[in-house]
Structures are given as structure tokens and as C-alpha cells.
Design a protein that fits this description.
eight-stranded parallel barrel; two-stranded antiparallel ribbon; alpha/beta; 15% strand; single chain
Length: 320
């Protein structure tokens, strides 16, 4: 394992590499090549989801890397996610089995409920990331209690289909409801997090309960309107990049891994950026640097999931 691979330890003793490769929007040969290159470059944490539509290519890259002796399966931490259209309890185990078949793996290391917002599935036994649409082409929302979905997630562990289970985009109340009812506690809550949206209160809530935060959109994201700020272009981030002879992306990723409660996903299919994103363990941000970045908080959420805002389980109606 490459020496940059720092790990954190979940409450159950399982170790997870603190830096993972995100594969959102990666498709076909491009994502296959990216995953293989990331593994060659030392990545051991690979994150995908059924809704990304790339599990087959991600799995092919993983299996080919193992065949070529670039890595052993036990060294990898592979993550995929249950889509909102399969949150009905009876669909959870079959959906994970479908993902495993697509990935061509006998188990995964972590399975996540992708969102507490549920969509009506295309059919009672149709395991698809798409759900039903109304006459206007809008998604039809389902009323599924996330706790009921969670109980089916626990069965996935019982069956040996996944080593760990967790959630994504859950707020503190939804997490507490799961904790109050669970046999197996979530190991992580995967949420958007960066200096513009540091998730301070949610992080403390999770840390107090032995749950790690995994962060996506660590480098911000696509700008939806001209008034939305770009974190990569912020003058403080660029100033720190010059001071440390690093890129703005490396500064933002360092901000993540320098804290003890965050696991970070860095999404890229560009070979140079994949390698560059690992060069964050050879320097430290000073206390003054961290304080400057802390002042950037502005509650900017690049992925607000507005399509689900009318759903009673929409997680962002409360502060955290």
C-alpha cells in the first residue's frame, strides 16, 4: 500500500482510507482508466453508486487491477450506494445483490443509503436508479421511513454482502432516529463538506456518537448561477496555495484530511489530478491557515437536492 494512504478506524475496528476516489459522472472507458490509474497511484478507497451508472466499469477496473497484481482485494475499500428508488425495505437486499453482480465482487466494504428522500420505483421488483415520473415529467416521491430502510441495510451485513453500512445526506434528526432503532450503527454519514459549508454542528453530532463524516464536493462544484462563489478561486485559498507551493485543490483536500473526523472523496478522471490529489500528506496547514479557512463559512451548498424539497424526509429543512 502506498505510504500516503492514511486510514481512520471506525467504531467496529474496520479501517478506512481517509482519501478516496470519487467516480460521480465518470463513464465507460474513462472511469475504467481512472480507477485503474488511481489504484496504481496508491488509492485504496473507491466510491461509486448505482445511480452513477458506472458500477460495471468501476468493477472491471478493480477486478483487472487485482488480476494484474496491482492490489489485493483485502487492501481495497469499495463503496456503493442504494438509490432513492430502491429505499423500500424489500428492495434493499436485492439491490445490493444487483450491484455486487455488476461490480463482479462477492462483497463490498461499505453500503450507503444514498438519500433519506425516496422515489416511487418503476415497479415493485424493478431495481433501477430511475423512478416513476408524473405527467409533467417530475419525480414522484415515496413516503418511506429511513429507519425501515436501515433495518433492511442491517440484513445486508447479516448476509455478508457488505462489511459496513452507513448513510448519506442525513440530518441529525434522521441519524438519531436510526441510532434509536438500530442493531448495527452507521459507520459514516456522507455529506457535502468544504470550508464554505464545514458542517460544524453535524460533525460534532456525529463525532459524539462515533460516526465519521465522509465528504463529497470537497472542491466545491459546478456553479449554478453567477452569484454563487467558487471555493477554488477564493483569494484566501489561492493565497495559501502560493504560500505552501501547492494547488488550491491540494489546500482544500489538506483542510479535510488534517482533521480527525473527516474522510474525503476527490472526484477526477484526469490522471494528473488523480496523482496531484494524493500530494497532501507532505505539508501541514498552520493554526492561522485553518482559522483563515474557517472564516470562509457562508452556508453555500453546491448540491441542495432541490428536486426533493417537497418530500417530508428532505434533510435540509433544519440547520443540521
Amino acid at each position: 500500500m502506498a505510504n500516503f494512504v492514511k486510514t481512520v478506524k471506525f467504531y467496529n475496528g474496520v479501517e478506512c482510507p481517509v482519501l478516496g476516489l470519487g467516480t460521480y459522472r465518470g463513464k465507460n472507458q474513462e472511469v475504467y482508466d481512472a480507477v485503474k490509474h488511481a489504484i496504481r497511484s496508491g488509492y485504496r478507497h473507491i466510491d461509486t453508486a448505482l445511480i452513477y451508472g458506472n458500477e460495471a466499469d468501476v468493477g472491471r477496473a478493480i477486478n483487472d487491477s487485482i488480476k494484474e497484481s496491482a492490489v489485493k482485494r483485502k487492501e481495497l475499500f469499495v463503496v456503493t450506494k442504494l438509490p432513492a428508488s430502491c429505499n423500500r425495505p424489500n428492495m434493499v437486499v436485492p439491490c445490493l445483490k444487483k450491484s455486487l453482480s455488476t461490480l463482479k465482487l462477492s462483497f463490498i466494504d461499505l453500503y450507503l443509503i444514498h438519500t433519506p428522500i425516496s422515489r416511487v420505483p418503476l415497479g415493485d421488483d424493478i431495481l433501477d436508479s430511475n423512478g416513476k415520473l408524473d405527467e409533467n415529467g417530475d419525480e414522484i416521491m415515496d413516503d418511506i421511513n429511513p429507519v425501515d430502510t436501515w433495518k433492511a441495510m442491517e440484513t445486508c451485513v447479516d448476509l455478508g454482502l457488505t462489511k459496513n453500512i452507513g448513510v448519506s445526506n442525513f440530518n441529525s434528526r434522521q441519524l438519531q432516529a436510526v441510532l434509536d432503532a438500530c442493531r448495527i450503527k452507521p459507520v459514516t454519514n456522507q455529506v457535502e463538506c468544504h470550508p464554505f459549508l464545514p458542517q460544524t454542528k453535524l460533525r460534532k453530532f456525529c463525532k459524539d456518537r462515533g460516526i465519521f463524516i465522509t465528504t463529497y464536493r470537497a472542491l466545491g462544484g459546478e456553479i449554478r448561477n453567477p452569484d454563487e462563489p467558487s471555493i477554488l478561486d477564493h483569494e484566501v485559498v489561492k493565497k495559501l496555495a502560493v504560500h505552501h507551493s501547492k494547488s488550491p485543490a491540494q489546500i482544500l483536500l489538506r483542510w479535510q484530511v488534517q482533521q480527525n473526523d473527516l474522510i474525503v472523496l476527490a472526484k477526477s478522471t484526469n490522471f494528473q489530478r488523480i496523482e496531484s490529489n494524493t500530494a497532501i500528506f507532505d505539508f501541514e496547514l498552520s493554526e492561522e491557515d485553518m482559522n483563515e479557512l474557517a472564516k470562509l463559512e457562508c452556508n453555500c451548498r453546491y448540491r441542495p437536492f432541490l428536486e426533493g424539497i417537497a418530500n417530508k424526509h428532505y434533510p435540509f429543512h433544519i440547520e443540521y
